[in-house]
Amino acid sequence: MSTRNSLKQLLAIGLLALVSVLPSWAAEVGGVKIDEAVTVEGQPLKLNGAGVRTKFVFKVYAMGLYLTDHKTTPSDIQALAGPKRVTIVMLREVASDELAKTFVAGLNNNSNAAEKAKVSDQTQKFEKMFTTVPVVKKGDVITLDWLPATGTVSQLNGKPLGEALPDAAFYNAVLRIWLGEKPVDDALKSALLGAK
């Protein structure tokens, strides 16, 4: 084998090694790099879509939705079995109780009376768990996971936030904050559904 071929092979191997250790980012939204894939309960999930929640002219948070399979409709996402993840990366500081109120308002705006009644207790616990921290700061990461054997598990910067909330109907109500008929941000809904 010639020296030239050996150098080409070494260069190719070196490039492959470099690529394998770099994080895999699928998108950059709001200046935040969003991972292409995550693992939840040992199961790989793929980024379904990512976008930015904007209120008036202010960017509030970047968000990614992770599923086992790509889905383009809210009903298909809610019906999908297996774990799911919502990742929220704060782009500005917000009082925790204010963030909780906007989440609950979005949940209520996208649920009928029967749906609200079914998850009322879990909705109150969800809102209350945000009071354990005074503010969420720029760069903080909130994850909202659906774990079929456990329920909705919320974390702030990798630390548990409140207790697990067991009902799948509650997680679907949470998803409707962004994917319902009256989403908190229409452009974000489209982005989470994988619209290009």
From TrEMBL:
GO molecular function: intramolecular lyase activity
Pfam families linked: Chalcone_3
Alphabetical keyword list: Lipoprotein, Membrane, Signal, Transmembrane
Signal peptide coordinates: 1-26
Taxonomy, superkingdom: Bacteria
InterPro entries, A to Z: Chalcone_isomerase, Chalcone_isomerase_3-sand, Chalcone_isomerase_sf
Domain Chalcone isomerase: 26-194
PANTHER family: FATTY-ACID-BINDING PROTEIN 3, CHLOROPLASTIC (PTHR47698)
Name of protein: Putative lipoprotein transmembrane
